[in-house]
Fold:
Amino acid sequence: MAKETIIEVNDLKKHYRNVKAVDGISFKVLRGEVFTLLGPNGAGKTTTLEVLEGLKTYDSGKITMFGKTLHANIPREIRERIGVVLQENNFIEHLTVAEILKMFRNFYPSPMKVAEVLKIVSLQEKRRAHVEKLSGGQRQRLAIGSALIGNPDLIFMDEPTTGLDPQARRNIWDMIEKFKNSGKTIFLTTHYMEEAEMLSDYVYIMDHGKIIAKGTPQKLISSFGEDKIIEARVNTDGNKILELKEFFNDAEIEKSKVIFGASDVPKAMKSFLNWAETNSIKVEDIVVRQSNLEDVFLKLTGRGLRD
Amino acid sequence: MKRTFTIFKSLSLSSLRSPGALFWTVVFPVLLLVILSSIFSNVGKSVSVKVAVVNESSTFKGTNMDFASHIVEALNGMSKATDDKTPLLSIESSTTRSFLQNSIKKLKLGKIDAVLIIPKFFNTYLYARTLHFPLKVKNESLEIYTQRNSQSSNIAFSLLDSIVNAFNREFIKRSGITDQVIPEIKYVSIGKNSSFSYMNFLITGIIVMAFMTVALFGVTDDLLVQREKKVLRRIFVAPINRSHYLFGMTFSNWALEFVQLALILVVGMWMGAKLKIGPSAVFYLLLALFTTTPLGFFVSSFAKSANSGSALANVFNFFFMFLGGLFFPVNNVPTALKVFVYSIPTTYLANGLRDSMGVSPSPTPAYLNVLVPIIWAVVMTLYSMRHFKWEV
Structure:
């Protein structure tokens, strides 16, 4: 049985004067999946998300959410079914964690219990703490809790782990996994390829307001590059390193770093080391790793995700 | 309603737990009341008072027995400025009936502080007293009209009383009369029967100031700071409308203002204030509460950031507080400033409140005291609804 379409976007456009923030994108989000918009800063991810959340209007295109076509404002019956984690999350000061959750709880018709949400976001011990006393990770967990308290079918998360330490990031990923397993649909934006790769069922790569690639993470990786990646750091001048292109057509060069795909790793490694020896180039460091979405983005745009 | 109540509760809790907000909105007005009333409880003793002298005496004109003219001359002498000192008295005098009627009208409006009437046969009566034998002459008393509720009017009366007493002493010394004090003073007061007190004057001004402060700073905080920190944005992606937030915020500020009002009244009464709290006072208190409410929203619609909003709120607060006559009377401000004084709502709110609480008669008509603040409130609300930006 086909999954229900939760969001359908067709040819969405949003321009700011001469900047085409969102330039004719289309996609579908199905029930129960984690849908990710991946792209560098300024790609148009947040603008797309804010249009879907009703925070911004759009110039043209068509948006359907829960089977209803959206216009300038999102009707309350749809807002009651969505939860939102914004990129920047602040709350009314001097209120406790539990009071913030209670406040948001009162806006929804069939909310979850505060204690239940506190447990999910692991903030039971902080329930009486004032919001301004929370750490970045705790504040982000509260933001997720406030999105969850209305018991939504769809949760929008705009770069939920940006600025968090690895441990806090890992905690958030675990939470998103749990939401997904409980059947909620998650619309995520991120510029962390590991995040997109680990959590997403479907990834749309966005750059300069356009979708430049789409598919499951595995499919994207396999369609746009080799299975394995060799990364080497060399000590030489720029001209010498450019000659490497003659040996490895797909090599990407970032300063003194050479990155190239290899289906046969021993053979490629041998060729590379021979080339280095012949040209008296010192190889300072060499690693072999699995290719990832960063490599896909690099391949597609010639830039890194965090450039 | 549930959503509005939720916002009301959340913002109220936040305000109650914020030491800064509590100090400026609740403690500061009370502190100001205590400080100002302690410093200026004797205010008015150094002010210049305006007196109209109606000299109706028509006998013994141009002779030594023209006692009325001696009194007028003495008063005129006091009204002359000496070096750098402002004269204590400012005298307007005439002999006509129309001047008398006009002067009484001015007194009622608070434009002058007292009217002294010297009766027609005043000179004859005094002359008869100097003759040392009983003459059946009608007692011609001096009449002093004052505004009982006005402190400057009381000062004017004291001055006139002391001048007449000095005149009496001189008259007795020269004429040798010892049996009774002449001339007598007949004291006529106009207006409501209560005496002026700076404490009463101040407390009503502080109430208006307190309402204005919460409206200005409370609302700019709830709107601009929360907008800047993206708190509003987070709230409005939930199923809640702007009207829920606006009403919740307004009710929260009103709750704070009721607390302020109670505290100011309790402290004021404890410090000796005597106010009449009747239906008209309640009406003016509610009018002040409602019509100051859009002030913060209005100021916020001009501000791009919380900082500029706070600066703008301070400017409004400063002008509305001092030019509205909340702490000191503004009857005697320079003409150029009077334009501001009579354009701003706080002047009328304070006048109305003082009149309704029996503090002092309103120098402005009652319909203006109601109409001007309402017009301000309506214009501010319409402007803010059109121009306030919920997103930056």
